[in-house]
Amino acid sequence: MSYTIDLSGRVALVTGASSGLGWQFARVLARAGAAVTLCGRRIERLKELRAAIEADGGDAHVVRLDVTDTDSIGAAVAHTETEVGNIDILVNNAGISVSGRLTELAPDDFDSVFATNTRGAFFVAQEVARRMIARAQGAAPGTWAGGRIVNIASVAGLRAVPQLGVYAMSKAAVVHMTRAMALEWGRFGINVNAVCPGYIDTEINHEFWSTEGGRRMLEALPRKRVGRAEDLDLVLLMLAAGQSHFVNGAVVVADDGFAL
Ligand code: NAD
């Protein structure tokens, strides 16, 4: 007997889909049958991804979104709901990192990390959840299929990591934001969960792995290895699936044991 996760008929929106984890999350959701809106600022990259998904037989749409701009968030969500369909699954993935000692970071570094990772994720979720809640309240009994919001936090949101203090603070806020959202929106059939990845080789850190510090970090990792974006496929699918309706406010750590 096999077990399947079928997202046919569901609409997913992925932020920061132009590279790394967002790119892979979009592909996985599309392979599971969802119509996926690819959101980000690098439109040419998103078009490449759309072509790859379509070549796989999937359904993808490109929408410009800068998560630091609330007008852009409202426009991207409205456009998706008009052109693609009501959003069932949000993957709140866009993020940036800044590294350096706490004593060295400038106010702009602090503000940009929080504006993207924390404030951006909050207002994207708020915009999507308001619409989900309205649909939940307007639905005839037994017809609301529920919503899924997956916030991509980080293992750095659970433990302090050298040189990544402010990034870690922004992700710790995402972890707690997840719980607050799950508490408030659970009664509307919206499940909000967080994924805390460990180190995955993507644009955000690719250069780092060939530096002296990167090599030292690799040696210090429990299994001396960095993950690949595909290593999170099943975690994402599990949290996006209808079958996970009893999982709400969870913080799923996928870090190869780094946080232990
Ligand atoms: P990445 O740099 O490849 O992807 C981040 C994406 O977010 C990029 O496509 C970027 O353009 C987009 N983005 C940044 N600012 C944006 C904005 N204002 N509006 C819209 N899009 C914006 O890196 P990644 O590793 O794929 O990161 C994805 C998420 O995973 C991030 O939230 C990151 O913090 C988190 N994460 C990554 C790792 C890792 O080791 N790679 C570990 C833990 C958590």
Low-confidence parts: none
How much of the polypeptide forms β-strand, as a percent range?
5-15%
C-alpha Rg (nearest Å): 18 Å
Helix content: 40-55%
Instruction: State the separation between the terminal residues, measured CA to CA.
Output: 34 Å
| Number of helices, counting only DSSP H or I runs of 4 residues or more | 7
* Count of discrete domains: 1
CATH superfamily: NAD(P)-binding Rossmann-like Domain
The 3D shape can be described as globular
Please give the CATH architecture: 3-Layer(aba) Sandwich
Average pLDDT: 97
Tell me the CATH topology: Rossmann fold
Structural class: alpha/beta
Number of E strands = 7
Structure, explained:
- Helix 1 runs parallel beside helix 2 and helix 3 packs parallel to helix 4.
- The protein has a seven-stranded parallel beta sheet, with helices on both faces.
- It has helices at 20-31, 43-55, 70-83, 107-138, 165-185, 212-220, 233-240; strands at residues 11-14, 35-40, 59-64, 89-92, 147-152, 190-197, 251-254.
- Helices cover 42% and strands 15% of the residues.
- By secondary structure, the chain is α/β, with parallel strands linked by helices.
- The chain is globular.
- The two termini are 34 Å apart.
- It has a single domain, classed as NAD(P)-binding Rossmann-like Domain (Rossmann fold, 3-Layer(aba) Sandwich).
- The structure holds nicotinamide-adenine-dinucleotide.
- Nicotinamide-adenine-dinucleotide (NAD) binds at residues 15-16, 18-22, 40-42, 65-68, 93-96, 116, 120, 152, 154, 197, 199-200, 202-205.
